[in-house]
Amino acid sequence: MDRRVLAVLLALAALLVLARLHTYDEPIETDLSAAAVITREVLDGRTLYADMWDHKPPALALTHAAAQLVTGYGPGAIFLLNVVAGVAGLLGAYAAAAALGSPAAGLWAAAFWATVSGDLWIQGNQPNTEAFINACLVWALALLARAHAGSGSGRFLAVGVLLAWASLYKQVVVAPAAFLAVAYVAWPPEGRSRRRTLLDLAVVALVGGAAWAAVVGYFAAVGRLAPFWDAVVTFNRHYSEGAGSLATRLRLSFSPAQLASVWVRNLAPLAALTALGAGVGVATARRRPWLLLLALAAATPIAVGLPGAFAPHYYQLWLPPLCVGGGLAVRALTPFAPERLTWLPHAAGAAALVLLLALELPFYAMPADDWSLLKYGPIFVEERKLARELDTLLLPNETFYVWGSEVGLYFWTRRSPVCGPCFVWPVTTGPLALPLTERLLADLARRPPELFIVANWTWTWIRVRHPVIEWAEARYRPMPGGHERGPFSLYVRRGGALEGRAERAAAR
To answer: Which one of 191, 284, 327, 497 is most buried, by most CB atoms within 10 A?
Structure first.
C-alpha cells in the first residue's frame, strides 16, 4: 500500500475514534446495556438462554465477552467495541471501493464512512449489532470484488466466515448474502466460469452451514437446545410478525416511507452521489463492480425490514452500499471529465463530503447527554441518574428488580440481576410469555429483591394484568418518603431492611 494512502487512512481512523470519544459519556441504550449485562453474567457462570435470556444469536455475547476480557466490565468495553467496529468498517469500505474502483475511490469511501457512520439519527455512534454486521459485509464485498480467474478457495472460505459470523449477530444477513451470491454468479470475474463461481459459492454456503450446525450442536450437547431455539428462532419469528407477514414486511421495506425514512435524512448526499455513479457505471463497460454493489443495495431494504420493527439503528445497514457507492461514483465519473478538468469527479465527492459535514458537525457541538435526549428522549439519562441513587439506597449485598426493559440500571450499578429474563416484553407477550413468566416468578421467589422498580411506561403499554405485578403488590409498597423518580416508581419489600431505613429517613 502506498504510504500516502496509509497516512490518509490512519488520519481518517483517528478522526473516527475522536468522534466516538465525543459521546463516550452518553448513557447506554437498552440493547447495548443488555448485551453487556448478559455477557457479564455468562462470564460469571450463568448460562446463556437457559438462565440469562436473550433473543439474539450468540455472536453478540461472544463479542462483548472479548471486549470485557480486555478492558473489564463497563463503558470502556463498549467504547472498545465502538472503535473496533468503526475502524474495521472504515478499512473495509476502503478495501471494497478500491477493489471495485481504484485506491482514490477507496479513500473517498473511507472518508464518507468516517464522516457519517456515527450519525445520530441512525444511532451509529454506539456499537449496536449493525456495526459488526456492516464490518463483516463490507469486507466480504471487498473479497468478492478482488476475486479473479486464479483465486483459490481460501478467499471464499474467508467470505463464508465473514457472512456466517455476521449471521450469528442477526439472521437478516441472509438477504445481502443471497443477493451478492446471485450477482457474483450472474457477472463472474473475468476468466472465471460460471461453473467455477457456483463452486465458490458452495464453499461459502458450506462454511455458513457448518457455523450454524456447530452452534446448534453445541447447545444440544450442553442440554440447552430448547431454550436456544425458543429464543433465537421461535421468539424472533413472533417478533418479526408484529409488522405482518413476510410479504407485508417486504412491501413495507420498499415503500417510499421506509426508503426515504426520516432516520436516513443525513445519508441523502451519499444516496444522490451513489445514484449518479450507478447510472453512469451501469451504462459503461465497467459494469460488474456496480452490479455487485447494487445487489448489496437491493438487499439492504430487505435486511432492514425483516425484523419488522424498522428501528433507527437498522438503517445503519445502508452504510456499506452508500459509502462504497459514493467512492465508486467518483471513479465512475472520472473518464467523462474533460482533460483539463480531471478534478471535477473529485469535486463531486468533495461536495457530497461537505454536505455530510454540514449535517453532522452541529451534533458535535452538543454534550453527550443531548445525543441521548434527541435519540430516545429522557429515559436513558434518567436511568443512569436513578442508578447512581440506587448505589446510595442499597447496601452492597442488596438487590433490585426492574419491571421494564431498562437493563442499564444493572449495568450502571454493576449489580447482578436476580432474574434470568430481564426484559418485560417476552414475559408479557408472545409464545414464550408463560414459561418465561414462570422462570421469572421462580427467580424472584428464590431471591426476593429489596427494591422492585417499575418503568412507568409499562402501565400504558402493557395492558394485561400480569402475575409478576400481582406477586409484587402482595410483597412491596411505595417507598416511604416518595417513590416517584421521573419515569420510574420505586417499591420496597415489606418487612425488608430497605423499608426500615427508608421509614427512618422519611421520619427525620
So the answer is: 327
